[in-house]
Design goal:
Elements (H helix, E strand, L loop, with lengths): L17 H19 L8 H5 L6 E6 L6 H15 L6 E3 L1 H4 L15 H8 L2 E4 L11 H11 L2 H17 L8 H16 L1
Parallel strand pairs: 1-2, 1-3
Length: 191
């Protein structure tokens, strides 16, 4: 297994990132085990160590450039604050996704990120000192999914429905029309 980073230099503990953990630990360990055992194939870390499928309690949204020691400290705080045990699954993409070939699907809603998020009870956003997670597209997608409520989805679905019955683009349907339709539906339901 590699003891040096991608540039051939030792990586100080304070500088190790999730990129390093993936490239220098996760992938080499799995690749080595796959080379010496027919029972092991290139897979995710979770598939390697878990006894079966797990429903995530918490979905962790984070940036891979965050120092790993800060990631571990934040994860430890999450465990303590939430009272999590070793029976509570926490979804972390580095370990949950097969890093040898992540299948994202053809739509965001088919991605393992969305699918795991849909199963999780909560989302934890891990921030480093520069808040780098907020500049990462996957993290902003995960935050959008987290804040997507049934009421918001109903507004968008109503807009799509109005566009379809009018035979126009959804961009031609104003939000005032959507609100009027939703108010009408509420008054119809209260009768």
């Amino acid at each position: 297994l590699a003891s040096r980073g991608q540039l051939g230099c030792r990586i100080p503990w304070t500088k190790i990132t999730m990129f390093d953990i993936c490239c220098e630990v996760v992938k080499p360990v799995i690749k080595h085990l796959a080379s010496v055992s027919a029972a092991v194939r290139e897979c995710s870390w979770v598939e390697l160590v878990a006894s079966g499928a797990q429903r995530p309690q918490t979905f962790v949204s984070h940036s891979w450039v965050m120092p790993f020691r800060d990631f571990v400290a934040t994860a430890s705080s999450l465990v303590t604050d939430r009272g999590l045990t070793n029976r509570d699954a926490v979804w972390i993409c580095t370990f949950a996704n097969n890093q040898f070939g992540i299948v994202l699907g053809t739509r965001l809603l088919q991605s393992p990120f969305y699918q795991a998020h849909a199963l999780a009870e909560e989302t934890a956003l891990f921030l480093d000192f520069t808040a780098s997670s907020l500049s990462r597209s996957w993290c902003t997608f995960e935050l959008a999914v987290t804040t997507d409520t049934q009421a918001v989805r109903k507004r968008w679905q109503t807009r799509d429905w109005l566009a379809a019955i009018r035979g126009v683009s959804k961009y031609d349907v104003g939000w005032d029309d959507v609100e009027a339709k939703l108010v009408q539906e509420c008054s119809d339901e209260s009768r």
